Task: structure prediction
Amino acid sequence: MHPTLGLFASQFTKRKPIKRGLLGDIRGKYLYPIKQTKITPPPPPKKPTKPKEEKETVPWRTQATYQQSLKGLYGGKHIQFGNQISDFGNKSRRTWKPNVQRVKLYSEALNEQLIIKCTPAALKYIDRKGGLDRYMMSMKDKELGKKMYDLKYKIQSKIIEMDKERNRLSRLDVVKEGDEGETGEKRIS
Result:
C-alpha cells in the first residue's frame, strides 16, 4: 500500500466500514468508502391524462409553405430558393416564384366563366384533359386547396344533377317511342 494512502485509510475506517478483498466492492482496493444505495419506494402512479384531441383531418391539401398555391391551380409549381452568384463568387439568396396569372376559364357544367389563379403549366394540363371540368374531376382531393376543393365538388354535384336529368329525359323518350299496343299498332294520342 502506498504510504500516503495509509494516512487517509485510518480516517475512512472511523467513518464507515470498508469492504476489502476479492469479494469486496471495486472501490475497496483504493480504500474509499462504499456508498450504500438507499431503497426508495417506486414513484406514485401518474394521474391519467386526458386523451389529446386529434386534429381534424381535412380532405383538401394543407401546407406550411407557399400557401398562395392553395387558392388556385398551380400544376404542382412551388416557390424555389437558391443563390445568385456574382462574378467574384459572392452568394446572395434569392427566390424564383411561379408565373401566376389570373385567367377566365369556362366551366361547361356550371355554364359560366370562372376567374382562377393559374400557372401556364396548369393551363397546359387543363388543355390536355379537355377543359376545366375534366381537369378538376381528374385531380385528387389532396392535390387541391380548400377553394379548388369546393369548386370541384360544386362541378361534380352539377354533373350528377345533369346526368340524372338526362337519364330521366331518355326514359321519357323510350316510353314515347315504345308506346305501342300488343298487336304492334301505334297508339294515337
Observations:
- The two ends are 130 Å apart (CA to CA).
- The first helix runs from residue 3 to 15.
